[in-house]
Amino acid sequence: MNDAVSRVRVPPKAAKGEVIEIRAVITHPMESGQRVNELGQRVPRKIINRFVCSYNGTEVFAADWFPAVTANPYLSFTTVATESGTVTFAWVDDDGTVYSASAPIEVA
Amino acid sequence: MIPALNPTPSPLVGEGGKALGSRHAAPPTPTLPRKGRGNLRAVILVTLVFVSSAVLAADQAPYQIGDQRSGYTYLPPELQAQQNDELGNQGMLWVERGAALWRAPAGTAGKSCATCHGDAAASMKGMRASYPRWNDGLGKPIDLEQRINLCRTEQMGAEPLAWESEALLGITAYVGRQSLGMKIALPADPRLEPYRKAGEAFYNQRRGQWQLACSYCHVEQVGHHLRGDLLSQGQTNGFPIYRLLWDRMGSVQRMFRWCNEGVRAEPYDFGSDEYIGLEIYLAERGRGLPVETPAVRR
Question: B86, B87, B94, B242: which to substitute to probe chain A, counting the most A Cβ within 10 Å?
């Protein structure tokens, strides 16, 4: 599914040292690998197994995901605004595909 | 666009204003001297009832017209909050997908939706609130999904999109979102009337191996539980919806099919006259309820 749609929210402006909330959501079936189809065959596992958020290249949040995570997963976390730049997001699929997104932030 | 449709979700209330579940019961009264406790309790109870009904009326105002209540009012506060949250509402992913498709040329004419309709925020405003509508070419009413596919085949020279495909759900959600908060109001068109009547008959007709009519659950048992779920009135103002059970978007016709299969009836085809009639009947019944596309439902 290379046409994954993601949406991210980073405050466009923040004060230095301020705690900011970052939110991200992406379309993904998160197929657990434990279901069978109508023919009784196992549906192969296909999930996003890792999520990484970087702030100007520095990793500020990462998570390993497992089959119990919902389809179209939503995530919210906080970090400290240190400098102006870019916040990048990466979702790593079981098949190796990396879905990415980014958002700018201005720190005064 | 209406601001946060419901910033402070109100407690769930069943038929007759009874609070549902112990979670929403009145807080325990503080311990008082035995004398006069009964009277005070009564006063507190009466006050609580007044306060809660006042809050309810104010909070649910857009979601309740007369005795017609949107499915939103049957959701727990967490899911109401999720629907109101532009990012947390996963249905918005399909809106985003639809926005991209709106601008993407398709078909032999090399046109996109935007080629003719421009900015959807202006041109599509109100569409979701006024469909299904009569189509002269076909000589029968069509719903929003069919309208989109007619544009594709007649204007764009493109293949129609499959029902429940990500693309059709996306465009429908995107077009629907432009009417957020507008009141459902089909045009006064006498040609729709036979379909509305047929839809009403469908709604009250027993069907399937279980011999259940839509109305048994969605009129007579509203507010009661069907296993873990709370039965709503089956309003259609939030479609297409992001349904947690499905883990994705679904159209109103998918919901009809799902319900029909639930009573072990053979579902009708997507876009069948029976289901279009049902859509018209339900839109008329829920006239005045706000468009919530994409609503979050269980």
Answer: B87
